[in-house]
Amino acid sequence: MFDIAPTELLIVAVVALVVIGPKDLPGVMRNVGHWVGRARGMARHFRSGIDTMIREAELEEMEKKWREENERIMREYPMLPDAPDYDHPEMQPPVADDADGEADKPAPGAPSDPQPGKAD
Prior knowledge:
mainly alpha, rod-shaped
């Protein structure tokens, strides 16, 4: 970013030593370091804000593409009016009465043990 050669940095240090003096130079350097650190912190905060805005814009673009694709699919394959409604109560499997205290029995055709060959 800033192209500062080591010789240029040495010249700046010598001029600062002559102008400021050896007694006040450590305090001035500490103050300069403090301000450079604050400037870097503000730059980092600014960059993270920009990155967040970019991510949000990309997310909105992806959501827009998803909505468009979903609408296209729904136009090509509309819901059939005679399709079964699996949320309707008549389409739910029957629940066995357990008046005798037994556990519910599995539906006909359903496996009784989730992992055949392994006992609990």
